[in-house]
Amino acid sequence: MSNKTKYNVATNIDLGNEGFKIIPLSEGSFTIDKTKIFVPFNHAEDDLYQRPIGSLLVEVQPFCIVTEKDIILIDAGLGFSSNKQLQIHANLLSNGINPQCVTKVLMSHLHKDHAGGISKRDNFGNYHLAFSNAIYYVQKKEFAFAMETGFPSFMSEEIGVLENNPQVQWLDGDGIIDGFIKHEITGGHSPFHQVFWLTIGGRTLFFGADDAPQLQQMKSKFVAKYDFDGKKCMELRQKWWQEGQVENWTFLFYHDIKTPVYSF
Predict the structure, then answer these.
(1) How many CA atoms lie within 13 A of 100 on its CB side?
(2) Which of 68, 87, 102, 219 would give a disulfide with 134, using CB separation of 3.0 to 4.6 Å?
(3) 38 located within any domain
């Protein structure tokens, strides 16, 4: 790799000596209760104990990975809009990235806090893919499960646009995308949940999505009741944390705004 400064033409973003840049796209904090409705939470003003009993505090944070050849979005956020603009579009633009320059959208699973931003609704109420020039990578069994299960965990109207869409590459189990993105079904957080390893510039970036959502969970034997297989998630986190230390991974945490990126 040359020591000269490298820029991605589409975004004019300095990629540094390693030839890539990680951009966390925080959408903020929310509380969620048994209704599974995400309610914005202001840490400076709101009181968690004033929310319904059993409310969980959740942070939402997709990632953009910019390389010399690709602009990769990993999961797509809640899909909230302001002034008719998707928040994830606004977040990309504020980082100097045109959403239409995104080339790949990697989906770990299709729960609404991860998949809301894959599509947008026009003035006639019809949904279209939010990233018109990207290839979407989705497990086909995850899509079938999501459409069958539906509300409130999955928003069928928003994700239904994936069906029979030429921009979607359906994944069937584990594999490799373009020689540098490894994907693997874990069945931890949800039955067909998948995780990703991206090998770029001599580094391994690991995205564990909701199997490995926060730094603190990697360091403890935490079992979540909301996971499809909480024990498996806990065991996988321990395994990945040990492997990451040995192999110097960079971890990307979707539900951790304080520590979105952690490198060994």
Answers:
(1) 1
(2) 102
(3) no
For 212-248, what is each residue's pLDDT tens digit? 999 999 998 889 888 999 999 999 999 999 999 999 9
State which residues form the domain around 86. Answer: 7-26+61-263
How many domains are contained in the chain? 1
Residue in this structure with the two tokens 């893919």, named with its chain if needed? 129
DSSP string computed for 34-98: TT---EEE-TTT--GGGSPTT-EEEEE--EEEEESS-EEEES-----EETTEEHHHHHHHHTT--
DSSP-based helix, strand, coil % in the chain, nearest 5: 25, 30, 45
Q: Mean pLDDT by 10-residue block, N- to C-terminus, for the chain (264 residues)? A: 65 87 95 85 84 85 97 97 92 96 98 96 93 98 97 94 97 98 97 98 96 94 90 97 98 96 96
CATH code for the domain in which residue 193 is found: 3.60.15.10
Report yes or no on 43 lying in a domain: no
The pLDDT value given to residue 161: 97
